[in-house]
Structure formats: C-alpha cells, structure tokens
Amino acid sequence: MPESGRRDRSSCMSERDRKPPFRRQGGKSPGKFSGKPRGFERQQAWRERETGADGPVILYGWHTVTLALANPKRRIRKLYVTENAARRLADERIETKVTPEIVRPGQIDQRLGPDAVHQGLLAEADPLPSPDIDTLEPEGMILVLDQITDPHNVGAILRSAAAFDVKAIVTTARHSPEATGVLAKSASGALELVPIITVQNLARALTRLDERGFQTVGLDSAGAEDIAAVTLREPLALVLGAEGKGLRQLTRETCSVVARLDMPGAIKSLNVSNAAVLALYVGASRLGLMSR
After folding, report:
1. What is the C-alpha separation between 76 and 25, in angstroms, rounded?
2. Could you say which of 32, 139, 266, 274 would form a disulfide bridge with 270 (CB–CB 3.0 to 4.6 Å)?
3. What is the dihedral of CA 93, 97, 98, 101, to 10 degrees?
4. What is the 3-class SS of the chain, one letter each residue?
5. Angle at 30 between CA 28 and CA 33, to 5 degrees
6. d(CA 88, CA 94)
7. For every one of its 292 residues, what pLDDT tens digit does the chain have, with 9 covering 90 and above?
C-alpha cells in the first residue's frame, strides 16, 4: 500500500478500466489531466489530424505557442503546460487566453512522441482564416508554393517568409500539409505572422495575381535565365515547386517568367526551403526592401 494509506488503484483496475477514456463506451472522459493524459487522443489520432482529418490545430514549442497566444485572430481551445513553462509564462507576463492545465513533460511526450521538442507547451487551437487572394495589397513580395508537401520544408519557408516581411503565402488546398504540428513547430511562430491563402486552382490564382499587377516568377532549375539577370519589379510573386518534381507544367506556363538559381559549386540544386530564402534575399535586395 502507498504511504498515504490508499490502495494503488492501478493495481486493481480491470482491463476495461485501463483503456484510455476515448475508448470507453457511454462513459464521460475525465476533465483533469493527471495519471494518463486525459483528454488527449492517442498519437495515431493526432497524426491523422496532421494529414488533414478534422480536428483542432496542434501547436507546440515556446515560440509557436506564445506567438499564437499573442495573436488576436487565433482562438485557443486548450492549453497544456508543465510547471516550468507555467512559471516562465508568468515571469514573462504572457496572457494565456484560457486557463492552462498543468501536466508533466512525459504526458506531452506521450501526445506528440518523444522526439518532439515541445518545451513544456502544447495548445489546441482553431485554424486561422484563409484570406482571399483579392485582399492582397499589391506591394512587396509573396510566395506561391506549388504542391510542396513536406511540413518541415513549408515550416522553414514560413519562417524565412516572416524574416523577409513576405505579405502572404499562396498554396493549394490539396497536396499541401496542414498548418499544424510539425509544420507549425518548424515555422517557429511564423504561422501567426504570415497569412496563408489557400486556393483550389493554382494556375487560376497566378492568373489573378498577374491581373492585379504581380510579377509572377517561377523558380526552376530548367529556367531560361538566372534570376540575378531578370528585371524584377514590385509587387513580386516568387513561385516554388516541390523537390524532385519542381514546378508543374501548367504552373510554369502561367508564370510570367521562369528563372533558375545559378550556383558556383559542384552541387547545382538546393533544398526547396534553402532555395526560398536565397530567392527572397535576391528579390528583397533587388526591390530595395532590405532598407525599408
């Protein structure tokens, strides 16, 4: 018997009682987060949400969650924090929007997997609204992503986009990762800073951007000339394709210019997120955006 004099309930629970709350039939899920991660779905259920199933956006990590808390457009449903993270939130006077639930680090590990660097913070939130392409101001730079599916790459691109003050990212509703989980962590808070415009048809979106005055420049290793030799103008839309496949044919045909990124070394191609940051630097420098 434990020192408190109570019996260890886990030693006398039936197999039915040991099942996670969401597996019980007709019972109520406990409201507090103690023992097993109550209110948490299994890791597999979370991974299904990562691939587009219905459910809240999953945000974890210090920068990701605290910038979400600071975003008035982001509705937080639930917030799980460790004691250390709760103290840090209090020390930095960060408003949590909702009453956080104190959990052990291992409980968040169980939700996300042991390799996720959550820093004691996990939030469930509503997705941010997707603006309409016609609401874009014709200024600065935007990025257009043509079926880039790796959430790490898209997250890294978002982070670079925030650094270069990109006004929006345009992506397709299909064949693109959900703005949750790994993508959100890789973006390190940039989800709250760079609007994501989701479109059904990328070629039509590029045509609409052209009609609104954007110069649409596709980046492809088979481009006719180096982007350094292209006359760039504002507003500028840089179009990036998936690794391996590159830009789809219709996307290439719809861009006003298709250019390449020439490299002096033996390796002539870059990871798409690295290509994005290089193209953004070239674009920002040529348009005079670095000094604004």
Report:
1. 28
2. 274
3. -30
4. CCCCCCCCHHHCCCHHHHCCHHHCCCCCCCCCCCCCCCCCCCHHHHHHHHCCCCCCEEEECHHHHHHHHHCCCCCEEEEEECHHHHHHHHHCCCCCCCCCEECCHHHHHHHHCCCCCCCCEEEEECCCCCCCHHHCCCCCEEEEEECCCCHHHHHHHHHHHHHCCCCCEEEECCCCCCCCHHHHHHHCCHHHCCCEEEECCHHHHHHHHHHCCCEEEEECCCCCEEHHHCCCCCCEEEEEEECCCECCHHHHHHCCEEEECCCCCCCCCCCHHHHHHHHHHHHHHHCCCCCC
5. 155
6. 9
7. 444 444 444 333 444 344 343 333 333 333 344 444 444 444 444 443 443 345 799 999 999 999 999 999 999 999 999 999 999 999 999 999 999 999 999 999 999 988 899 999 999 999 999 999 999 999 999 999 999 999 999 999 999 999 999 999 999 988 889 999 999 999 999 999 999 999 999 999 999 999 999 999 999 988 889 999 999 999 999 999 988 889 999 999 999 999 999 988 988 888 999 999 999 999 999 999 988 7
Structure token digits, residue 179: 């703005």
Residue 173 structure tokens: 């509703």
The residue whose two tokens read 């820093």 is 119
